[in-house]
Design a protein that fits this description.
four-stranded antiparallel β-sheet; about 25% strand; about 300 residues; alpha+beta
C-alpha cells in the first residue's frame, strides 16, 4: 500500500498516510483498519459527537507507547474542520467539533484513536448540560459483571425520577449509563449525580462506593458522578479504546446487561461492533430521541 493516499470524503480532500502502520502491536491492527472502522461506524457515531468539543487521545507511535490527551486542534488539520471556543481555567481555547465524516477521518488519520466528549454541546453552552452520565468503574477484585448489577439499581433509581437510562460499555473495564436531559444547570446535574451515588453507596455498601479514594474500591464499583462536571469528558459512543486488544465503547441492550455472566460477554472487537450496527442499528439512538426533566 502506498505511504500516502489521496482520497475525497464528502467532497473534502484528505491525504491519508502510513495506512500499514501497526497501532495495536498485540494484534497487528493497523491505522488503515482503524480508519476503516471509523468510516463504517460513522453513521451511528456522529450524532453522539456533533457540536460537542472533543478531547482527543492520540497515539502517534501506537498503543503501548506513550499517548497524550489533546484538547487543542492538532497541527496539520485541514482548515475546513469546524472548531468552537471554550472557556477554560487558562482562558478561551479552541476545540474541534466532530460534526462530519471528513473530520472524523482527518482526526483518526492524525492518530486520534480515542474521542471523548462532554455532557453539553455548542447548542446548550457549557453552563447547561443535556446529558447525565454515570461512570461505573470496577475496583480491584470486581469486574463488569458487578457493574451490570449496579447498573440495574441505577436504572431503577433514574426511572423513579422520570429519567431513562441507556447503557454502553466503557470499552475498557466498566460501564457508562446515560440519560437525556432537557438542558439543565451544570451544577444541578453534578449535584443530582453525586446524591444518587451517595444514596446507592449507603443502601449497598458491599457493592458501591461513591468516594474517589482508590483504597476504598476493592471488590466494589466506584460510581463516578464527577464525570458530569463541565470540564470533564467521557469516552464517546463507538470510540476505539487504546487497550492492548482494540476495544470499543459499545452501546448495549438492557437484556445484555441483565444476563451478563462474565466480562467476555461484553467485550467487543471493532468488527463485532460493526456487525452489531448492521444488525441492530444504533442501540443508543433513543438517547437522542427524547429528554427528561432533572428532578427539582
Amino acid at each position: 500500500m502506498p505511504e500516502r493516499q489521496v482520497t475525497e470524503v464528502e467532497g473534502r480532500r484528505l491525504v491519508l498516510s502510513h495506512l500499514d502502520k501497526v497501532l495495536w502491536p498485540a494484534t497487528g491492527w493497523t491505522k488503515g483498519e482503524a480508519l476503516y472502522y471509523y468510516a463504517q461506524a460513522a453513521p451511528a457515531m456522529l450524532p453522539h459527537l456533533r457540536r460537542r468539543p472533543a478531547t482527543l487521545l492520540r497515539f502517534p507511535s501506537g498503543v503501548g507507547e506513550e499517548g497524550f490527551f489533546a484538547k487543542n486542534p492538532p497541527p496539520g488539520l485541514p482548515d475546513w474542520v469546524r472548531t468552537m471556543v471554550v472557556d477554560s481555567h487558562e482562558g478561551p481555547k479552541e476545540r474541534v467539533t466532530v460534526d462530519d465524516l471528513a473530520t472524523l477521518m482527518a482526526l483518526a488519520n492524525g492518530y486520534a484513536l480515542e474521542l471523548h466528549v462532554p455532557q453539553w454541546s455548542a447548542d446548550t453552552g457549557a453552563g447547561a448540560h443535556d446529558r447525565l452520565v454515570i461512570d461505573l468503574d470496577p475496583g480491584p477484585g470486581a469486574d463488569i459483571t458487578l457493574c451490570c448489577r449496579v447498573a440495574l439499581l441505577i436504572r431503577e433509581e433514574l426511572a423513579a425520577d422520570g429519567l431513562t437510562a441507556h447503557p454502553k460499555t466503557s470499552g475498557s473495564k466498566g460501564l457508562h449509563l446515560y440519560a437525556a436531559l432537557r438542558p439543565a444547570d451544570a451544577s444541578a446535574v453534578v449535584g443530582y449525580a453525586r446524591a444518587l451515588a451517595e444514596r446507592l453507596a449507603a443502601a449497598h455498601p458491599g457493592q458501591v462506593v461513591h468516594r474517589m479514594a482508590k483504597n476504598l474500591r476493592r471488590g466494589k464499583v466506584f460510581v463516578d458522578w464527577s464525570q458530569n462536571s463541565t470540564a470533564k469528558t467521557t469516552a464517546a459512543p463507538y470510540t476505539l479504546r487504546a487497550t492492548a486488544v482494540p476495544g470499543v465503547s459499545t452501546p448495549l441492550s438492557w437484556a445484555e446487561v441483565e444476563s451478563c455472566g462474565s466480562p467476555a460477554e461484553l467485550a467487543f472487537t471493532p468488527e463485532q461492533v460493526l456487525a452489531r450496527i448492521a444488525e441492530h442499528g444504533d442501540l443508543l439512538a433513543p438517547l437522542l430521541a427524547g429528554a427528561g426533566e432533572l428532578p427539582g
